[in-house]
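Notes on consecutive records. When two proteins share a document, each keeps its own sequence and its own token line. Never mix them. Below: protein one.
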Amino acid sequence: MNVFLSYLLCINLAMTLHQVPKKVGLQLESGPRGGSALAFSPDGRRLAVGLAAHTTARIRIYEFPSGALLAELPEQYGLVYELTFHQVSGRYLTEVEF
């Protein structure tokens, strides 16, 4: 067995298989041009979504897995490229890169 094949075999043995659900669990509204970025909070209970319009973008923060809208930030010019959660003093801060 060559080194490359044994390396691939080790990778395949270490993978965890996940089954794709057969039904939609949560459906969120997107912007007119879709979503541009997603981020989960460190505890997995909040989901930040960057929504794209024609020349602007907005950010919505949802409770997960219920899908309840917690906050919506005002529209900004440009596209949201990245969203990141940071935990500060027991609260979450969302970092946005336009």
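Protein two starts on the next line and is unrelated to protein one.
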Amino acid sequence: MKLTIADRLNILYGGLLPEKANMETMALSKDVKEKLTFTTEQMEEIGLETLENGTLKWKDSKDKEDYDIELKPKELVMLDKQVTELDGKNEITTHLLTICQKIKEAV
């Protein structure tokens, strides 16, 4: 799946990974988190930093780059379930809309 920096961050920190679930779902969530977490080298390359107010910032030139992240079908189904749950509660924000659409298209 092709994901931008913002897509990856929105999955990691935007409520698309469950905080509580059964063991299988939490194992899938852990695997997704490991795949999406930025390495030290990636953070340096894209200039990823946390500002004093907690906001994440990165180089504008890297903003539109896609990173090919291989997600298994079960991982996509788990993410889709989270998107469906957020959608049902009317909790999809403009920040999450693009990644939610990508997840729905990928399932």
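For the record: The chain has a mean pLDDT of 95.
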